[in-house]
From TrEMBL:
Ranges that cross the membrane: 12-32, 37-55, 61-85, 97-114, 141-158, 187-209, 239-258, 264-283
Span of the signal peptide: none
PANTHER family: ABC TRANSPORTER PERMEASE PROTEIN (PTHR11795:SF452), BRANCHED-CHAIN AMINO ACID TRANSPORT SYSTEM PERMEASE PROTEIN LIVH (PTHR11795)
Protein name: Branched-chain amino acid ABC transporter permease
Family in the record: Belongs to the binding-protein-dependent transport system permease family. LivHM subfamily.
Lipid bilayer topology: Multi-pass membrane protein
Subcellular locations according to the entry: Cell inner membrane
Keywords for this protein: Amino-acid transport, Cell membrane, Membrane, Transmembrane, Transmembrane helix, Transport
Species per Swiss-Prot/TrEMBL record: Isoalcanivorax beigongshangi
Length: 287
């Protein structure tokens, strides 16, 4: 039973991180129809900013998370304004190629400045929480609580605020939203900012139990794309449910089948579900 609960904790931890990253990715796709391959590189930038604040400047963990969120949100807005906005009327392939180029540029800058070696970020909360016979690391509980809290805040923001409603309106019909006076350029910038901030928070939460290195976003962004395809492209609830499915498949599959194939299990889950529902789980309820 303890082993099962341990795997449940691992699954929720993975699902929480995947959910935060996939939410940013699906927001950008839903509003702008851009598959932002650079999202993984933004995640890596968030981890490095938090690392520098905590290690080089002995900063507080929460301060590091806030500065990382602001820095990556600004970087995401710059990428929208300087890279994607000029390509808004170009063939669809151009923004995909631009996103790949942006990934290579950001990673090259990280490697040039920090080197390619792996770095360890200090664990902010290294205590153990006892629940019966089960010992749970406080950092993992923080990841789960923070991720689900942010998801709830994002849901309330999109459904209960005027600004959030403009994002939903643009995602549903960009031309119609523009005709009724919504500034679609401002909405695009705001969407990229939220997406970048979510990636930075996810990186700051996960980095203390992982490693920090320039290519740390590669596998994560692949799984995030799996998740948003699984949940339905552009669907916020689909991204959350898809992230939990992949997190549970990886954790329990890796433990009960083989840890070496845990990544394969996640992609196999995508194939099985899409063969049953090709449009994704929440395609009809996107946004």
């Amino acid at each position: 039973m303890d082993l099962f609960l341990q795997q449940l904790l691992n699954a929720l931890t993975l699902g929480s991180i995947y959910g935060l990253v996939a939410l940013g990715l699906t927001l950008v796709y839903g509003v702008l129809n851009i598959p932002n391959f650079a999202h993984g590189a933004l995640y890596a930038v968030g981890a490095y900013v938090a690392y520098v604040v905590m290690v080089d400047y002995s900063g507080n963990y929460w301060l590091a998370m806030a500065l990382a969120a602001v820095a990556v949100a600004v970087l995401a807005m710059l990428s929208e304004r300087l890279v994607f906005y000029p390509l808004r009327n170009s063939p669809p392939l151009h923004d995909k190629i631009a996103a790949i180029g942006l990934v290579m540029f950001i990673e090259a800058m990280l490697q040039w400045h920090f080197g390619a070696e792996f770095r360890h970020m200090p664990v902010a909360f290294d205590t153990q929480v006892q629940l019966g016979n089960l010992s749970m690391p406080a950092q993992r509980l923080l990841i789960i609580a923070a991720a689900f809290g942010l998801m709830a805040v994002l849901h309330l923001f999109l459904t209960r605020t005027m600004t959030g409603s403009t994002i939903v309106a643009v995602a549903q019909n960009r031309e119609g939203a523009s005709l009724v006076g919504i500034d679609t350029r401002r909405v695009a910038l705001l969407t990229f900012a939220i997406s970048g901030a979510l990636a930075a928070v996810a990186a700051t939460l996960f980095a203390p139990i992982n490693l920090v290195y320039p290519a740390m976003g590669h596998l994560l962004i692949m799984k995030a794309f799996v998740i948003i395809v699984l949940g339905g492209m552009g669907s916020v609830p689909g991204a959350i449910v898809g992230a939990l499915i992949i997190g549970f498949a990886e954790s329990f599959g890796g433990f009960y089948i083989s840890n070496e194939y845990k990544d394969v299990i996640a992609f196999a889950a995508l194939v099985v579900i899409l063969s049953i529902k090709p449009t994704g789980l929440f395609a009809k309820r996107a946004n």
